[in-house]
Every structure is written in C-alpha cells, then in structure tokens.
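Lab channel / #folding
Pinned by the channel admin:
"Please post every new chain as: sequence first, then the structure tokens as a reply. Keep commentary short and put observations after the output so the thread stays searchable."

First post following the new format, from NK:
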Amino acid sequence: MNRIKHGNINKWSQAKAGDVIEFASSKPRHVKFEVTANSNIEVWVANDNKMSDAVLVGTSNGKTEIQYTAPATTYVQIKAEKSAAVFVNIPDIDQSVQNSDEPSFTSIEPRTSNGTDYDRMAMLMRYNQQQMEQQLEAERAVLRAERKQFSNEINEKMLKASGGDEDIAKRAASYEEAKNEAELKDAGETTE
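Reply from TO:
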C-alpha cells in the first residue's frame, strides 16, 4: 500500500516543466519544498537564473521533498516530460518584509509577574528550605555538644587511669595503655 500525505492542497501550485523558481536571500538559508508529478522529474539548483552552474539535487517518479542549504539566492529548475503535470509546495518562497515609513504603534511590554500561584509556591519553597537549614543546624549543635561531652569523659578517664599525669593521658592511645604507663612510672621504670 502506497501512502502519500499532501497536507493542505491549497498550498500546492502548478509549475511548468523547465520553469525556474527563485529562492531569494541575502544571507545563508535552508531551502525546503515538495514536488509531485505524474512522470519522472529532475530537480536542478543553480546560483544564477540561466542555470549555468546547475547541480542535480534530486530525481523522482512521484512525490519528493527537496532540502538544501544555500549561501545566498538560488534558482531551482524542475525538468519533466512536456505533457507531465508538475505541482510544487513551496511554503517559504519569500518571507522578506519591506520597510515602510508608516508609524508603528506597537511596543514591547515589560515582563509580567508569573502569577500569584507561582509566587506562593516559591515563597513556600524558601520557607521550607529555611526550616530545614534551622533543623540541621540545631541537630549539628546537639551533636557537637554530645561529642564535647564524650571527649571530656574520655579525657577524665584517661587522666584518672594515668594517675593524674596529663602527659601520660595525652600520649596514651587507650585506657589500658594509660593505666600501664602510670603503673610503670610509679614503679620507677620508663616507657622509652
């Protein structure tokens, strides 16, 4: 089954085989159009309307879509049999607008606010973020206090195990080591 989509048929216009179609442009552009015919066709593109440097860009025996990029104005020639019916759909033949000296009463309006729902949602998100940061800071403060208390308890145990000698308590890596060093010091032995 052969499926052909043409879209709006009012955009299609008949073209004579051999006619030259101009795609005017003062800058590089992308050209796109469709061709359908009841015979074999050739689509040629050139930089001048005499088609002296023409390049073959497509051939077809039915409907085809042609696309190419051009540095400036280009000319297209569709070659077909003399009795062939050729139709083209060229949506962008000329989109240039002529400057007019008539006054223009349009102006660009300033950006409007996004609306009350958006502003409310943004405010709630900021409020939630602040609450989360406050809760995290409170939890960090509690953890710091617990860590300090735990460190003080360990220091007291080490000091007690070392017999009140702060040097031994700071040097020792564990409670047992501090206790052993304190006993050795009391016995008059050195650990070094």
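NK: The helical segments are 116-161, 166-171, 175-187.
TO: also worth noting, The chain has three helices and eight strands.
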